[in-house]
Amino acid sequence: MRKLMWFTVGYAAAAALGTYLLRGGTVLFAALICGLLAAGALRFRENPIVKRAGILLLGAVIGALAFFAYEQIVLRPIAALDGREVALTVRVTDYSWETDYGCAADGTAEIAGRTYKIRFYLNDPAELEPGNTVELRAKLRLTDEGGVHEPTFHRTGGILLLAFQRGECAISQGARQWLDWAADWRHRLTGVIDECFPADAAGFAKALVFGDRTGIDYEASTDFSITGVSHVVAVSGLHVSILCAVVYLFSRKRRFLTAIIGIPMLWCFAAVVGFSPSVTRAVIMQSIMLLALMADREYDPPTALSAAVLLMLANDPLTAASVGFQLSVSSVAGIFLFYSPICEWLKQYLPGRGKTLRGYLERWFTSSVAVTLSANIMTVPLTAVYFETVSLIGVVTNLLVLFVISGIFYGVGLVCLIGVWNLTLGSALAWLVAYPIRYVLAVTHWLSQVPIAAVYTASPYIVLWLVLLYGLLAWLMCSGKKRVALAAVCAVLGLCMSLMLSYLEPLTCAYRVSVLDVGQGQCVVLQSEGSTFLVDCGGDYDDDAADIAARYLLSQGISRIDGLILTHYDRDHAGGVPYLAHRIDIARVYLPQTEDADGCLQGVLDAVPEQVGIDSDTVISFGDAQIRIFPAKMLGSGNDSCASVLFQRGKCDTLITGDLSSSAERELLGDYALPDLEVLIVGHHGSKYSTCAELLEATAPDTAIISVGADNPYGHPTDEVLERLKGAGCAVYRTDLHGTITYRG
After folding, report:
1. Which of 10, 84, 260, 522 is the most buried (most CB within 10 A)?
2. Domain count along the chain
């Protein structure tokens, strides 16, 4: 019985509960309950099942106590600093990068007697490097979104505070530390890649070796997600195993020499790529394997995985919330659990016997498919939750591209080594390595265009299909009968039924308005008579808003929309359009005559060739439905220069006013006879300066929907607006509380 494995399961569960749900005294209470249960279970340790439960509960007790100590010692001292301005002295630990408003860098700062990792933002561009000291006055923000207790990607990377410059700052050269060499080499080698590789291959090369995805454009990143090979450009166990294989080969398979060379090399590699959770997990496991090999001891992969997880969570319990950590651990666990059964089943049809070419190909096919399927069994639920995407073509993609990844990895590594010494020779080799990179990019792009290459959990029917799928898997595991073919047929039929319902359900509604949860922004889908229009596409992040809109549409089988209407060109309303155009065919875009303060218009013009200017009352009719677009009344005057949209069919009316202020809303009422509304999309995300009492009185909306981001810095929706809506008798729905909201008429 693997005692460490069961202990780690309990420890990890406690860390996850502490990270996401429990804090303070509730953690101690949970530890007490688990301790009592563990004591009771261990009294009957003769029963192996009860004994496992006791060890698991003991792990949960230790994990809960460790998390409580971490919270009190590390998190509590900085909790009171959220939103405060303080004087900071930050030691820079990595090279800075440009932002839209200046630059940003990571560093460490001593706060309340402890040293914390911090990401700081300066108002002006600056070229910072490890060892620099920055003295500034800054406003601090906790990376748990101000106390929501759901860590952001900053916090799961060990960064607990964000600092935003207020006033002047001073930069000086401080003392360098030993770990600065890792950042220096990462910076230098990524620079070599940029110098040596062609532009279309450099981004992939940097992502493959260093996990730096800044050079991967939106289209390629989307292709990787759809085809299920995003793990290729996220440095993980795959890359560590490739590096370990090189060491094993060059040491001529000598166990002691392999360990002596391999372990330091693996940890140096982890340092250079920044100790990402997936790499750290893989390096710990490989180090344990090499030590076992050196000592001629048996290597047990589940125990090694348990040790890696336990060490990482003991160092930082918040690692439990890292998506990369969860995917990495889940994929390895899936391989341990399901690889052998899947291989045995496949060997019934592809035995792979002998040393012939056919036997070799059958063994390669069986092993590749088994690895991909076994890893996906554990990771699909995570990708469905975090990315709302389930790749159906991932097995095919992995078969077509993974066999060249090792060669590309070795090639990029050689380019880095040679390029440091001679850029000309490095560029010559990079010219050759670029061709297999282009092959990978071409294959993933081509496969991403295959119909139903992926399905999306924006459709509830796909969620139900996933439940069915894992129900069938549980049945296969519990049943002594290996009815794999029957389960596969049921899974395929369930998928077909889910897709059919997903595609048909919107057509059953004569009138449908969906306000997508894009955070602090707006994207509204209008559907009737088989036609689909979007009003605005923007949110917290441009690409995220586009992804949310694309997944929503594609989940209904819609790859082309009849039109996109923009109320104005603020980034939170128009920033996602160029990205959306990569995934959805937009027939035409309707453009108001208004100012372009955020510089989004040119991107829209480049993305959608067919454009219709809105300088007068415009009506778009389709069947019994129509969309009226009211032009901006006050040109060039900020939010008051928004266009407005009225969507009508029969007795159903929806009004979208963009960011119009109360004075502009009164102008709108004076110019047009607005009907009583079934739905009002509340103006300016619930700002107190919009959605005036006169508008509510004139239109008497039954339902008010607010598109707003959770914990946004503007305080939207304001209490004043909520009171006005309540006084008007509206049923109020908010995307920050209810997610995507759909009205059916």
Report:
1. 522
2. 4
